[in-house]
Amino acid sequence: MKPEKEVQTTLTIQNSKFIGILLPFRGDVKHELSKIKETYKKATHYCYAYRMENEVGTHDDGEPSKTAGLPILNMLEKYKIKGALLVVVRYFGGIKLGTGGLIRAYQQIAEKTIQEATLLPLKEGYEVLFEVSYANLEQVTYLLKDSIILSKQFDEKITIQAKIVEEIKEPLTQMVEILSMKKCSF
After folding, report:
1. How far apart are CA 51 and CA 131, in angstroms?
2. CATH of domain 2-120
3. What's the pLDDT score for residue 1?
4. Which of 51, 128, 133, 153 has the least CB density, counted as fewest CB within 10 Å?
5. Nearest-5° angle of CA 10, CA 14, CA 19?
6. Which helix (H) or strand (E) is 18 found in, with range?
7. What gap in Å lies between CA 55 and CA 80, rounded to an integer?
């Protein structure tokens, strides 16, 4: 499962305000986190977890080790969510929650946020790396309209890394030079 779009929820526990933000995620934590930090400038902590196809990550952002990022990740795993980043922004309310209290608080806000989201099934497809000529770029761009572009590099030819659905595998293969292709879900 993956989130259809960004969703936010709020929870107050012993004067601390927790804001859960679940969003579709393509792998740039720094970019997404900088946008959230800009929105919630005076927050005390920005803890998160993410799950990708073959990668997971967590960050406690100053909370005691494994009291924030890991409980958030556990909720993503419980609901079988991939391709998502879940950030919990905390405004400290002056009352220390203790290790157990923090774990429960981060689990609660993570689960509440996930339950508010519209979750979509993952698509089966391929992660591809290919080269395309500038002359064929417009046609390939149209073909990739429902794909996830992971990177583009412009040299003599354009090298693109993307996640594509099964339906465009054959037409894409006929237009470009495939450098690598592996099955994936997104």
Report:
1. 28
2. 3.30.230.30
3. 92
4. 153
5. 20
6. strand 16-24
7. 14
> Encoding tokens for residue 107?
């689990």
Task: Name 173's Cβ contacts closer than 8 Å, sequence gap at least 6.
Answer: none
59-81 burial, b for 16+ CB within 10 Å, e for fewer? Answer: bbbebeeebbbbbbbbbbeeeeb
0.85 exceeded by pTM: no
What CATH architecture is 124-185? 2-Layer Sandwich (3.30)
Topology match between the domains 2-120 and 124-185? no
| 8-20 pLDDT per residue, tens | 999 999 999 999 9
Domain ranges (residues) in the chain: 2-120, 124-185
Range among 50-54, 153-157, 181-185 with highest mean pLDDT value: 153-157
Rg, the chain, Cα only: 19
